[in-house]
Amino acid sequence: KTGAVIYLRAGDIFFESISDCTDCLISSYGEGKKPVICGFRVMTGAEGWQKDEQGIWKLDMSDPSQFYGYKAGYGKQFYGNIGCLYIPEENRILGQSVATKKELKNQYDFFVTDKVKRSELTQDDFKYLYIKSDEKPGAYCLSSGTNGISNMTGCTIENLAIVGFGGHGIQFLWNCTVRNCDIDIMGGSILLGTRSHWARYGNGIELWIGKKPCNGNVIENCQISRCYDVGATIQGPSSQEVHSSDNHFRNNRIAYCRQGFE
Questions:
Q1: Could you give phi then psi for residue 66, rounded to 5 degrees?
Q2: What is the C-alpha separation between 35 and 251, in angstroms, rounded?
């Protein structure tokens, strides 16, 4: 996608990700709340919960009849790799993801897999979501284990809300402007890769400094909240030859993240 102008209607929810754009404008039109780029898989009801053992319930994440909402990222790297459980009516995030099924000890603790190496994953590793609950769980929104907006070059992203992704809200930007965006409920999914250490991840905005550093960006007048890890971060395996430059953060508000700015 090069040179596109995309306007999303205010008040609408788009269960999609946006990626791989060059010299594009992505904004909103109309009156009302900002349009939402949403990563939630939304349960259609509580009927899908089945008793697994005493105090433990399981949900078949591969059953499409149990969900509506976000449908992308169903490869084995993301299948069922949710970041959190969310109740929109109460504006409440539930529970804590744990590394093994044996660690399901506290109310609303949940478990999906203990594997972290992509080479070892199968679809079955993310097929079931297990939850500790004294009674049958309800119908929740489940944040998808992927990113909201990524791989953008020379783009302007403005007047949007990005909500409910288990990975990062916005990642991999080059010479972009992000302004007046609301980023909320990010992260918590399992970090999958080549190492064997189990860990969770997820930032609001991440500028990666690797072989092709994410430089030349302006992040301004954004609201970033409830991120599992960092609200806004510049990180990566930088060196003397490759480093961060010309990135500007102005007039942003960051709240209820594990860390505000890194």
A1: -90, -5
A2: 21
